[in-house]
Write a structure and sequence with these properties.
homodimer, two-stranded antiparallel sheet, 5 helices, DNA-binding
Chain lengths: 127, 127
DNA sequence: TTGATTGTACTATGTATCATAGTACACTGT
DNA sequence: ACAGTGTACTATGATACATAGTACAATCAA
């Protein structure tokens, strides 16, 4: 399904969250499609089931997944995932931090703008 | 000198690092100007001296400060602070993470670009 | 109905990071 | 000599994370 980078500064559960978000947003996971079980995905990633469960719980809280006792966990419809004001401002804070660092390092405004343009263009499908 | 936000997700030492970088880059601290001693700044911020020392050590490693045994710690010349490739790519990774989050949340590309433009424009002096 | 599968909820353990507390030592300038 | 400075320790507590193991309830297929 995907891979975990143990050397990443992101926690494992956070990496799982992000990768699954990617799969859902890009439509690789169809809305309503069944996710692997907590135990299966944990086995595939050689990771603890509790860690996967944590990721699933977070994704459900954010509306990317929904679960049914005894049946499984399913991908939600990306159209219906409402971005909360909190989530957006958290993301904005991450951008601000990154820009701060570049500013402190003396990277020029022009270079920074170019860098961001590259990052955005990496996602050709971003409308 | 500045303030610490205990509720921030950033660690205290990281906040000190960032705030001092800001003071140096903006020229509020003149090159060669003496920084408050570890103990003084710790007292002012009601923070442990070890925490301030950690921040000073990091800032020295990154070239923002230089120290002289028994004399004190001093602000470096911003002109001479060389941005390492590592530092820049770390900052770039922060930007990528923030953009990822916005993408996952379904924020449009246009809105994202507007948001970034605002963030950059907040720093009027950024050349 | 039985059994396998699934989500869920615990407790316990180990590790890492961070901040604090306290002590000590070496260097510098007055 | 003395006060102020950076620096280096050890120890403690708090928190977050991942792992290990167990248990239970709901669901579905045989």
């Amino acid at each position: 399904m995907f891979a975990i980078d143990l050397k990443s500064r992101k926690s494992i559960s956070e990496q799982i969250v992000d990768q699954i978000k990617e799969l859902i947003v890009t439509g690789v996971m169809e809305p309503g499609e069944k996710m692997p079980s907590v135990r299966d995905l944990a086995g595939e990633l050689t990771v603890n089931p509790n860690t996967v469960q944590k990721a699933y719980r977070l994704l459900e809280q954010q509306g990317f997944l929904y679960t049914a006792q005894g049946r499984g966990t399913f991908a939600a419809d990306p159209e219906e995932i409402a971005a909360s004001r909190e989530d957006v401002s958290r993301a904005k804070a991450m951008l601000r931090d990154g820009l701060d660092q570049l500013y402190y390092l003396g990277v020029s405004r022009k270079e920074t703008e170019k860098m961001i343009d590259e990052l955005i263009t990496e996602r050709e499908d971003w409308t």
